[in-house]
Design brief:
Nuclear Transport Factor 2, Chain: A; 6 strands; 3 helices; alpha+beta; six-stranded mixed beta sheet
Length: about 120
């Protein structure tokens, strides 16, 4: 599903989401850091951690040995809420455990760049 209200935003968020997924798969920490907003209110609620602020998110990434487990995307939905913001949700399967996971990201346009302001990752049990 994609929202038709702001097609340019949907296209931009598709590219930004693809870049994030590639950086995640490669454990490209500098690129992952750049894809998150440096706003002091940025949030990342992970499967095992709650991170508030850009410093906490960056420290988590640097301390994560080996990066994120390999995964297969099962579905991606993009909803543009304005020309400057939107939400991306992804259902994925962890290739190591077979668990189904969920990822939600709220993206905002900061200058010429799209960045994640709020992210959430969880697994179905």
């Amino acid at each position: 599903m994609t929202s038709a209200a702001y097609p340019e935003t949907v296209s931009a968020l598709t590219l930004a989401s693809d870049e994030y997924e590639e950086a995640l798969a490669q454990n490209d920490v500098p690129r992952l850091d750049a894809l998150f907003s440096d706003d002091p209110n940025v949030i990342r609620l992970g499967a095992t951690e709650n991170l508030f602020g850009p410093e906490a998110i960056a420290a988590f990434r640097r301390g994560r040995t080996g990066g994120a487990p390999p995964r297969e995307r099962l579905r991606r939905d993009i909803v543009a809420t304005s020309p400057l913001s939107g939400c991306v949700t992804i259902l994925f399967r962890n290739l190591s455990t077979g668990q189904t996971g969920r990822q939600s990201q709220t993206w905002i346009k900061e200058g010429n760049h799209w960045r994640i302001l709020v992210a959430h990752v969880s697994f179905l049990v």
